[in-house]
Amino acid sequence: MTRSLSFLLLMLSVLNTPSAKAQVSQIFYSEPEKEDGRRTNFEIIGKLNGNYLVFKNNNSNNAISVYDSTMKETQRVPMTFMPDRYINVDFVTYSDYCLLIYEYQKKGIVHAAAARIGPDGQLIGKPSELDTTLVGFASNNKIYTLIVSEDKQRIMLFKINSHDPKNFMFTTFLYDSELKLIDRHRIYLPMEDKNELFTEFLVDNQGTFVFAKYLRSGSNDYVSRVSVVTKGPTADTFCIRDIGAGDRILDEIKIKVDNNNNRYIISGFYYKQRRGNIEGLYTVLWDKATNSREMEKVTVFSDELRALAKSTDATVRTAFNDFFIRHIVTKRDGGYLLVSESQYTTSRGSMFNRWDYMNPVYGYGPGFYSPYYSPYYNPWARNYGAYATRFHAENIMVLSFDRDGNLQWSNVIPKSQFDDESDNLISTELVNTGGELHFLFNLYERRNMLLNDQSVSPEGRITRYPTLHNLDRGYDFMPRYGKQVSSWESVIPCLYRNYLCFAKVDF
Prior knowledge:
Number of strands: 38
Low-confidence stretches: 1-19, 359-370, 373-386
Number of domains: 1
CATH class: Mainly Beta
Strand content: over 45%
CATH architecture: 8 Propeller
Distance between the termini: 25 Å
Number of helices: 2
Radius of gyration: 22 Å
């Protein structure tokens, strides 16, 4: 499921001035619906003209539920124009309408189509077809990927044909906010090694397509030879530049667009030796105008930070071995925040190390059954084999950097979460209220799982707010799938006696 971070990317310049603290003031729950259960696929669309829209799929039934400000369902609108079975859906939400981009297969052809939906959940006008792909066989593999700029004025749809493993063919479609086509191109990207992978794909506010390509060793171990790949709004070729990391042993690579400062932030943990301990953070600040490295920074984690961040079973030296970068949040002045979380699995009969856990989430590579590459991660479809798996999500580390990549402050939010067979109820949602960054997550208190709210101030101070009110109704929150829908509101899915419901959290 695609999760938009647009509200998490609100300009953090407001964090540089004193601001009143915000904490959860009220929670509203939707009523359980007999149609909606654990098997329901859903997508939180957002807030449109005061209504809160959620897309739901149950087998061949597709519908949009419309909720009012108290999460009372005012109507459930069947999406009769959609096929009974679809491959994927994405939504781009504006203040008074949203764009639904959906993918489905009919016979041997995969279709990408679009529809406009109003605040009442009703179709506006008629759906339109964006593109088709001949595959010649029945498949549920996702072919098309949708990415949206931070200001939502540029929308890109693309697909990748990996039939030739040495030369991937990209077909890109760039649209404006009204889905008017700006540019369409078919471009080849040379792949020098079968173990080359991609980071997440991004499009900036000017319509530049950007991602990083990197080589991971044959044993799915460390990262080397990282390149920035860009395509201008109307360019007909890719521009590929090595970031200049040399022989550094790097971990997962994250890339972030800094639209206000016309640059990209490329960051990842690094090691001193293969399969060693994580030593610190390696960051490259990439200038978009010159398409070259503006600055390189190495942040070594101190023993004090290691002692603060380590989980119960970790040592000071191994403190960061289970940490993954979750968010990079930019500031208007060129600084940025990096948020990482400790995540790992344990299992009876098998142990999963960092590289096993990381690959399904961060490794983007060609699909097995289709010549079309599928950069798609479905958290509901994780499969770690026949062993009983326990998922863990522990401490959160927040690092603040200035414009030049120098560390300003660091802090850790301590927590310990686990669940068996599923990670739906663990991890966090990040909510940006302007004056603080809030982290919402479940913790057991007196044998009850309760939603907690802890925040980070502009100076790095951690505030743990009192246990949230209105939590005694038997609802189990899934904050990792929550979505911030305004500067003071978030909608979080939850389970109530095996029924899928939704809670609106007001700050």
